[in-house]
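User: Good morning. I'm curious how nicotinamide-adenine-dinucleotide would be positioned relative to this chain. Could you predict the structure with it bound?
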Amino acid sequence: MKKRTVLITGSTSGIGLAIAKAFAQQGHNLIFNGLEPDGRQIAEAVANEHQIEYVFDPANMLHPKALRTLVRQGEQRWGTIDVLINNAGIQHVAPIADFPEEKWEAIIGINLTAPFHLTKAVWPAMKNQHFGRIINIASAHGLVASEFKSAYVAAKHGLIGLTKTAALEGATCGITANAICPGYVRTPLVDRQIADQAVAHRISESDVIEKVILAKQALKQFVPPESIAALCLFLASDAAATLTGAALPIDGGWSAQ
Ligand code: NAD
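Assistant: Good morning! Here's the predicted structure, ligand included:
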């Protein structure tokens, strides 16, 4: 694959970091982002290991102006963002009747509205060069629901809707847009859920993993973050030029049911 400039939100932890490492290994220019306090050092370590050019910007997904600056930084340095990977996301688990309104706003803002602002910001330069790849990290929860996750399920379903619309609008200008829908991946986001569920159900963390977390996945194992990264590399490659508007499950058979 030609050397690309790749912006990955939330790339200093979990799935985003695995995606960043995979693109770094192939020598692409990277724009790292994330709110981890040691994010700058994490980005630097990946870049140094693979001798790539990079930028780190802890832009907050809730601030549209910061998102436009994030894109502009990459464009000023490399001319264009070739691949946008909307990965930053948060979760909150509570019944609708008790769901805190500020958590709803934050989940919709980070998981859905930020990908819209970033897609809008990268669009003109992608269109101009007649090449662009937009990859949205949705979730199995973009395809099916679970109780107590109203905001997350709504945001991820919405993200798949945004993906399909971007695919249609991008079809005449060399831009593809796809969503990846992972099942459970063992990251800090899921570790927090395991700990919370153990308290809520009064069971051990290993019982939470077996009886709650992996209950819906036919393959009773977590999805490795590296598998999601490999799928992103494929979607960014020339071989995926006609793959657009898809919501691709990588969920151990969860959404097959
Ligand atoms: P994670 O908590 O390890 O990483 C999330 C990243 O997003 C972090 O870098 C964090 O700093 C960043 N982030 C959060 N809020 C932000 C904000 N306001 N501004 C900027 N950055 C912010 O989580 P993860 O599991 O790696 O999740 C990554 C994506 O994958 C999310 O969109 C999540 O919904 C999705 N996903 C995760 C799983 C899973 O099982 N872990 C499954 C399906 C989908």
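The two ends are 36 Å apart (CA to CA). Residues 101-129 form the longest helix (29 residues).
Let me know if you'd like a different ligand tried.
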